[in-house]
């Protein structure tokens, strides 16, 4: 029986820890497009790369993983001498992975509400509501995070149940609104500018956005859990995008 895409990606990423070359076969390296600007493309086969990495005694854990058509998106915890939290996105074509994006940051926390960056619900349900949930999150990002209509927060978020996993924030709408209101020299400290992609499976939705954090060009990956038409849980990673002069491939972050 053919494994699901998410199981194939789980095995692929776990091979970073084990050095097992077998799971790398899911990747079509002749077509593979790498969007991590800090990674060379085609300089080293993935099997050799993962074997080399495995000798550093890394730890790899997929906390939650989902499928959306040709895409797999996963929430990962890595320990490569320091603990990192990452979102990984793979696109499949003809049964093999041909494109990859990611967004990684240091693991911090717990936050003021006692949540880590990875705890909370992990399994998708409400699969029949995938498209309404995708549209809800798209509207939230475009209306509140990009357009800055903070008075609309309650239209999208369940104020009574909202659990926040960002290490700098706390549960509830007031903490989120306060963070989004902060400005420096007339510019929002957290400035979402463009929504690139929205992936969803059931009640879990991942948005991929570009903007500024404290004036630095940044990528925002936000994972939301939706219940009864409102956002009830949120995880994220934010990564500063290196200047193009420092990129090791020309595919772009997004």
Overall shape = globular
- Indicate the mean pLDDT: 94
Largest sheet: 5 strands, mixed
- Tell me the count of domains: 2
Tell me the total number of β-strands: 12
Q: What is the class of the largest domain in the CATH system?
A: Alpha Beta
Strand content: 35-45%
- Supply the helix-strand structural class: alpha+beta
User: What is the CATH architecture descriptor of the largest domain?
Assistant: Roll
Query: Which fold name corresponds to the CATH topology of the largest domain?
Result: Nuclear Transport Factor 2, Chain: A
Gyration radius over CA: 18 Å
Distance between the termini: 33 Å
List the total number of helices.
5
Q: Work out the helicity level.
A: 10-25%
Q: Strand sequence of the main sheet, in spatial order?
A: 1-5-4-3-2
**Uncertain spans:** none
């Amino acid at each position: 029986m053919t494994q699901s895409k998410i199981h194939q990606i789980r095995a692929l990423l776990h091979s970073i820890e084990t050095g097992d070359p077998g799971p790398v076969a899911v990747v079509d390296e002749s077509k593979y497009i790498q969007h991590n600007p800090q990674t060379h493309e085609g300089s080293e086969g993935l099997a050799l790369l993962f074997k080399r990495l495995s000798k550093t005694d890394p730890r790899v854990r997929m906390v939650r993983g989902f499928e959306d058509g040709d895409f797999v998106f996963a929430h990962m915890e890595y320990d490569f001498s320091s603990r990192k939290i990452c979102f990984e996105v793979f696109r499949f074509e003809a049964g093999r992975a041909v494109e990859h994006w990611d967004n990684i940051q240091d693991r911090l926390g717990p936050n003021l509400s006692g949540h880590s960056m990875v705890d909370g619900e992990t399994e998708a349900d409400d699969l029949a509501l995938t498209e309404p949930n995708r549209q809800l999150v798209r509207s939230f990002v475009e209306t509140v995070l990009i357009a800055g209509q903070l008075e609309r927060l309650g239209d999208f978020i369940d104020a009574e149940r909202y659990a926040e996993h960002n290490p700098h924030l706390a549960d509830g709408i007031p903490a989120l609104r306060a963070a989004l209101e902060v400005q420096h020299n007339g510019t929002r400290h957290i400035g979402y500018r463009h929504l690139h992609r929205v992936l969803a499976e059931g009640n879990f939705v991942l948005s991929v956005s570009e903007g500024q954090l404290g004036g630095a060009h940044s990528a925002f990956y936000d994972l939301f859990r939706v219940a009864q038409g409102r956002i009830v849980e949120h995880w994220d990673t934010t990564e500063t995008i290196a200047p193009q002069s420092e990129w090791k491939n020309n595919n772009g972050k997004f």
